[in-house]
Design a protein that fits this description.
The structure is a single chain. The protein is mainly α. 67% of the residues lie in helices and 0% in strands. It is built from 15 helices and no strands. The protein has helices spanning 2-8, 18-27, 30-39, 41-61, 65-86, 91-96, 100-113, 118-121, 145-175, 194-201, 203-215, 220-240, 247-275, 281-304, 308-327. It starts with a helix and ends in a 30-residue tail after the last helix.
C-alpha cells in the first residue's frame, strides 16, 4: 500500500542524537553557539536529500521497501560506533558531579585540538569549581516549579514540530505519487516523481542557511515562530491546489513548505539545548524528543487517509499552535546555557569553564 511507503519515508532522528548535540552546545562559546549548531544541520540535510535517491534505487528499481529500510539503517549503526569512540563526556556534567579531574582531562584534550596550551589553561592540580556532587536527574525534575511551565510548552512544541515536519514530508511524497492514488497491496505498483521529491528535499539547504542568518539577528524565538507561521500557510496552499495545479507550482510550494519546516525544526533544537541547565539538559531534551514521537506517529494516519483539504486545515492549526507555544518560551540568544529561564538565573551556578577553549 502507498500508506506503507509513506511510513517508510518517515526516516527519524534517533533518540541518541540529543546527547551529542547537547554536548556540542556545551563546548561552543555563547556568541558562536547558534551558528555552529546550525552548521551541523547540513549533515541532516544531506541525509534527507539521499532518501529519495536511495528510495529510487531500492523501491523503484529493486522493488523492495525492506531493502530501503535496511540501507537507511546503516548510518544509524555507523553513528552508534562513532559516538562511542569519539564523543566525550560533558565536562559541565562531570563538574556538577564533583569529578573535576575527569572534566579537566577532557578540557585539556579540547584545548590541545584547538591549538592552545592545556598546561597554561588548566595547570596540574587546578580546580574549575567547588561544586558538591549532585544526585542524578530524572524526568520528574522537569515538573518542578522552576521547570514545569517550560517543560509543558516544549512538550507541545515538540509534538507539534514532529507532526508538522514529518507531515509535510509525507504530504509532499503523497502529492508526487504518480500512481493516481491507487491503493494497491503491491507496493511495487506505486510510482513517484522522485526528481520533484529530491528538489523539495534540497529546500533544507536553503532553510538551514536562512536559520543561520536569522538566529543571531532577530533571535531564536522569533525565527521559530515566523518559520511555523509561514510553513503552515505554505502547506495549506500546497494542499489546496494539489489536485488541480501543474507540476511547477506544486514543486515551488513544496519547496517553500520544506524551507520553513527546516528553519523551525533546527532552531527548536538549539532553543531546547540552551534552555535547560546542565544537570537536566540531556534529560529534558531527550524527554521532549520522546514526546515528539507522538506527533510523528500521527503523521502517517493524518496524511495517508485524509483528503488534501482536511490535511490543509489540520496542519495549519497545528503550525499555529506550535508558533503560539514557541512564542511563550524565553529567548536564548546571547544567554549563557541554562540561564534563559529568568526564574532560574539566581538559583543555580552554571560552570563556564568550557568558554575558555
Amino acid at each position: 500500500m502507498v500508506d506503507r511507503l509513506l511510513a517508510c519515508l518517515l526516516v527519524d532522528r534517533i533518540g541518541g542524537l540529543t546527547v551529542p548535540f547537547d554536548i556540542l552546545a556545551e563546548f561552543i562559546p555563547t556568541k558562536d553557539r547558534g551558528r555552529y549548531l546550525l552548521l551541523i544541520e547540513y549533515y541532516w540535510t544531506a541525509g534527507s536529500m539521499l532518501v529519495p535517491i536511495i528510495a529510487y534505487y531500492t523501491i523503484e528499481l529493486a522493488d523492495s521497501w525492506r531493502l530501503f529500510v535496511a540501507v537507511c539503517a546503516i548510518p544509524c549503526i555507523i553513528s552508534l560506533f562513532a559516538g562511542m569512540m569519539y564523543v566525550p563526556e560533558s565536562p559541565r556534567w562531570l563538574i556538577l558531579k564533583g569529578r573535576n579531574e575527569e572534566a579537566l582531562d577532557i578540557l585539556r584534550k579540547a584545548a590541545l585540538m584547538n591549538g592552545k596550551d592545556p598546561r597554561e589553561l588548566f595547570p596540574q592540580g587546578c580546580y574549575i569549581c567547588n561544586e558538591e556532587a549532585e544526585e542524578g536527574s530524572s524526568c520528574m525534575d522537569l515538573f518542578q516549579p522552576k521547570w514545569k511551565r517550560i517543560t509543558l510548552l516544549l512538550f507541545v512544541v515538540w509534538a507539534g514540530f514532529a507532526l508538522c515536519y514529518y507531515g509535510t514530508i509525507m504530504t509532499v511524497t503523497r502529492i508526487f505519487n504518480e500512481s493516481n492514488g491507487d491503493d494497491d497491496d503491491d507496493l511495487g505498483k506505486a510510482t513517484f516523481d522522485y526528481s520533484a521529491i529530491f528538489i523539495s528535499s534540497s529546500a533544507e539547504v536553503i532553510g538551514t542557511a536562512i536559520a543561520i542568518a536569522l538566529v543571531d539577528r532577530i533571535g531564536r524565538i522569533q525565527t521559530t515562530v515566523g518559520a511555523y507561521v509561514c510553513g503552515g500557510v505554505s502547506l495549506f496552499a500546497l494542499c489546496f491546489v494539489a489536485d488541480h495545479s501543474g507540476r511547477t507550482e506544486l514543486v515551488v510550494l513544496s519547496f517553500a513548505a520544506r524551507v520553513c519546516e527546516m528553519v523551525g525544526s533546527c532552531t527548536l533544537w538549539i532553543v531546547t539545548a540552551e534552555i535547560f541547565s546542565t544537570d537536566i539538559r540531556s534529560t529534558g531534551h531527550s524527554a521532549t524528543n520522546a514526546v515528539a514521537r507522538l506527533g510523528g506517529f500521527c503523521s502517517p494516519y493524518l496524511v495517508g487517509n485524509t483528503s488534501f483539504r482536511a490535511i490543509a486545515f489540520v496542519m495549519l492549526v497545528a503550525h499555529l499552535v506550535v508558533a503560539f507555544c514557541a512564542s511563550r518560551l524565553p529567548e536564548t540568544k546571547g544567554v549563557e546555557l541554562g540561564r534563559a529561564n529568568t526564574r532560574e538565573q539566581e538559583e543555580r551556578y552554571e560552570p563556564t569553564c568550557t568558554e575558555l577553549i
